[in-house]
Amino acid sequence: MARYIGPVCRLCRTEQLKLMLKGGRCKSDKCPINRKRAAPGKDPKARLGKRSDYGTQLREKQKLKRIYGMQEKQFRLFFEKAVRMPGITGENLFALLERRLDNVVYRMRFATSRSQARQLVLHGHVQVNGKRVSIPSSIVKAEDEIGIAEGGKKMVVIKDALKEFTKSGIMPWLSLDPDAMKGKFLSSPKRGEITDLKDIKEQMIIELYSK
């Protein structure tokens, strides 16, 4: 499966937005957005002119795709699935993205970033309803129980990540027992509940793919 292996801070600089791709580093003074570093390239100032409608729509799509750590083909498949579902396409898209197993592991504070959560899943440290699942893009259903496998409960990276639960809590569509290292996906989130992504304009993504 193809994946981006370049410097992820460069992606944040490209979008001029904190995409939260490196966990704790994103909250530190080392973050290039906190340091107000310019976009990558030889002459970033030359690209600061007015964008076309297509350019604006493309940037919104790239932001969302990069936040969830997906490649274009997979992201497009998720969008097409959202179109086929009843309801509002934009809300369906966000609900599907939030139901990805790697994202749920990240949201439950078992990992400090979605890429770290993806590694935990790939290495067999995550269980869904008591069974190991090693496919990060697996879709979680309401009332599914997600937990860390017995061998993974000793991992320092998971214990350190769980410290964020005491500071920030958890999203309202999830429940967590940090001592048992397991929780439940209660229901698909509504668009308004995903407060950390409130600046993403999903309508522009719909317009981009509708051309």
Describe the protein in words:
The protein is an alpha+beta fold. It is built from 8 helices and 5 strands. The chain has a 5-stranded antiparallel sheet with strand order 2-1-3-5-4. A hairpin with a 4-residue loop joins β4 (174-177) and β5 (182-185). α3 packs across α4 (89-98). The protein starts with 7 loop residues before the first helix and ends with a helix.
Overall 3D form: globular
Question: What's the count of strands?
Answer: 5
H and E string: HHHHHHEEEHEEH
Q: Give a quick account of the main beta sheet: strands, pairing sense, barrel closure.
A: 5 strands, antiparallel
Give the helices and strands, then pairings.
Elements: H1 8-15, H2 53-67, H3 72-84, H4 89-98, H5 101-107, H6 114-122, E1 126-128, E2 131-132, E3 144-148, H7 156-168, E4 174-177, E5 182-185, H8 202-209
Helix pairs in contact: 2-8, 3-4, 5-6
